[in-house]
């Protein structure tokens, strides 16, 4: 991960997903059914995308050795919730590669252990049932996650509210606008607390 990307991640981590959504006209926000699996999870990074058959994680095992620091692994698991695509061991493998989060349109398991790792994992459901490992799957293709299309290299930001997807071509504008939104809201809060705004 370059110094420039590290700086982008730092700046993105200082704005709320709601502020990013506001400046993107409320578009690009992942459906709320894909939620953080432990309280306080937060991340910002670039998408590595995976499309997999429902309940099957072979392609996830295939992609993990290629992950780079700052990556977010984005998995379209067909919205299936009957079998977990990721558990503690698969999560820790990604974390040790420098991956900053998994975003899964599907299910996971081992939520307490993943929380103990403090590794951000967002998913549609939790189930103890394990996956198959037969395939098929694809790596590096546009995928749909919670009603939003994510292309490889897009930026994702997650916090307790949910996830925003920023197309890579729009990053500079969206980030600058979100920072202005954050500053405006901070001033509004000061005005409220100073009694300058009618409550």
Automatic annotation (TrEMBL):
Binding-site residues, substrate: 87-90, 109
Q: Which GO terms describe its molecular function?
A: 4-hydroxy-4-methyl-2-oxoglutarate aldolase activity; metal ion binding; oxaloacetate decarboxylase activity
Can you tell which superkingdom this protein's organism belongs to? Bacteria
- InterPro entries, per database record: RraA/RraA-like (IPR005493), RraA/RraA-like_sf (IPR036704)
Would the keyword Transmembrane helix be found if you checked this record's keyword annotation?
A: no
- Keywords carried by this UniProt record: Magnesium, Metal-binding
A Pfam family the protein falls into: RraA-like
Amino-acid positions noted as binding Mg(2+) in the UniProt annotation, renumbered to this chain? 110
Q: Output the SUPFAM superfamilies linked to this UniProt entry.
A: RraA-like
Q: Which PANTHER family match?
A: 4-HYDROXY-4-METHYL-2-OXOGLUTARATE ALDOLASE 3-RELATED
Q: What is this protein called?
A: Putative 4-hydroxy-4-methyl-2-oxoglutarate aldolase
What species does this protein belong to? Answer: Paramicrobacterium agarici
